[in-house]
Every structure is written in C-alpha cells, then in structure tokens.
Design a protein that fits this description.
- The protein has two helices and four strands.
- By secondary structure, the protein is an alpha+beta fold.
- The chain has a single domain, classed as 2-Layer Sandwich (Double Stranded RNA Binding Domain), CATH 3.30.160.100.
- It has a four-stranded mixed β-sheet, covered by helices on one side.
- The longest helix has 25 residues.
C-alpha cells in the first residue's frame, strides 16, 4: 500500500508521520483491496482535521475527523475508515 501524507498550513512532526504510518499498518487485513492511501493533515480555526482517502479495487473510501488534537483526529478517522472497510468486505463476501 502506497501512503501519501499531505500537510496543510503546518509542518507535521516526525512523531505524527510515524504514528500515521503505524496506524495505517493496522489495516493489513484489507491490504489486498487497497492500492493507494492519502492522508490530509490540516490545522484550521475549527481544530485539527484529518481526512483519509483510500483507493481500493472498485471503490474509494473517505473518512474525516476534526478535534482539538491531531492524534485524536487520526484515531477517529481511522476508526471510521475501518468500519467502512469491514462493511464493504462483508458485502463483497456475501455475493
């Protein structure tokens, strides 16, 4: 899986970059479906936004999360993404 981290309006620390890569590694269960992953990290007036876009075979998945902490945003967005992938995998295996 190819991972692209795109920061906006700030320079992320190595700790945040490493955390993103480690957390995305937990999606190994779905790795056969995922071709590309784009993680947008943005600081704005509403808080710290994380948007994860996964390009899978036949479908694209998007998950957003905004909190006051970047790590919390990453965790929430990944939880949403995992729920989407589980649901999609279940639908594909039922057919």
């Amino acid at each position: 899986m190819q991972i692209e981290i795109v920061p906006r309006y700030f320079e992320p620390t190595d700790r945040i970059k490493k955390y993103v890569e480690e957390e995305l590694a937990k999606l190994k269960l779905f790795e056969h479906m995922i071709t590309h992953c784009r993680v947008l990290l943005e600081k704005n007036k509403d808080g710290e936004l994380v948007e994860i876009t996964l390009h899978a075979i036949g479908k694209n998945f998007v998950a957003h999360a905004v909190t006051d902490d970047m790590i919390k945003s990453i965790d929430q967005a990944l939880a949403k993404m995992e729920r989407q992938l589980i649901k999609y995998k279940e639908k594909r295996t039922k057919r």
